[in-house]
From TrEMBL:
PANTHER family: GNTR FAMILY REGULATORY PROTEIN, TRANSCRIPTIONAL REGULATOR, GNTR FAMILY
SMART domains: FCD, HTH_GNTR
TM annotation in the entry: none
Keywords noted in UniProt: DNA-binding, Transcription, Transcription regulation
Endoplasmic reticulum in keyword set: no
SUPFAM superfamilies: GntR ligand-binding domain-like, Winged helix' DNA-binding domain
Protein's UniProt name: FadR family transcriptional regulator
């Protein structure tokens, strides 16, 4: 279990495990997960913990609980396939696991940004600043993600490594083309603002050609890629996030 989940309550742990199992098995909507007593027996939890775990799953729109004969716990929706900072993202089921796409994207961003800081010209920086302003003005989560991808594509192009920049552009196209749903996490405001501030620091470091500042900003950027409450479906989950 990732270190980032060690502070979760028992109910949160149970809800996260059920959610990850639904994702791994691609459990169809409407599938019965049994009754409350089945959940309690399986995880060795009390009725109070069971009710709280079900509340969490209902709040995420993942299960519905039906009373009476023929009732029980049923799958309401599929869980998010990637958690990216303040965003939960769902993708169409065909092709590569979206998590693998985001992991590849994260590695490309690290490499290309470290080169762009030495090679970016005024036009490159203007393109980054334009995309950054789009991130600030995004009115819904999909627009925010697309602006984020445009910012990093501008950085990729500034690296003057066409092959790798082309790979990044292809990854971004697959991500946006297969995205079916995007939602902000509850209480996202602070994380959202922090993420924008980190990207502003990255752009400022590239503008100034400051490698030391860029290194610090990219360390914060890596932390932002991981949803602190559950890193199991986030890029870079093999390296648990550290407290900022």
């Amino acid at each position: 279990m990732p270190e980032a989940r060690s502070n979760l309550s028992r109910a949160q742990q149970v809800a996260a495990q059920v959610e990850n199992e639904l994702l791994a098995a691609r459990t169809p909507v409407g599938t019965s997960l049994g009754r409350r007593t089945d959940l309690m027996d399986r995880f060795g939890i009390s009725p109070t913990v069971c009710n709280e775990a079900l509340r969490i799953l209902r709040d995420r729109d993942l299960v519905v609980v039906r009373p009476g004969p023929g009732g029980g716990i049923f799958v309401a929706n599929v869980p998010p396939q990637v958690r990216l900072g303040a965003l939960d993202l769902w993708f169409s089921g065909a092709g590569t696991d979206p998590l693998e796409l985001f992991e590849a994207r994260a590695h490309l961003e690290t490499t290309l940004t470290s080169v762009a800081v030495d090679r970016a010209g005024p036009k490159d920086v203007r393109d980054m600043e334009w995309a950054l302003e789009e991130m600030r003005n995004a009115s819904e989560p999909r627009a925010y993600l697309e602006a984020n991808l445009r910012l990093h594509l501008a950085i990729a192009r500034a690296s003057r490594i066409p092959v790798l920049a082309g790979m990044y552009e292809a990854l971004a196209a697959i991500i946006t083309g297969s995205l079916t749903r995007a939602e902000l996490l509850p209480g996202h405001d602070e994380m959202y603002a922090h993420n924008i501030a980190v990207h502003a620091e990255i752009v400022a470091a590239i503008r100034g050609g400051n490698r030391e500042n860029l290194k610090k900003a990219m360390a914060l950027h890596h932390q932002d890629l991981i949803r602190a409450t559950d890193g199991s479906r986030s890029p870079g989950q093999a390296e648990p996030p550290h407290e900022a």
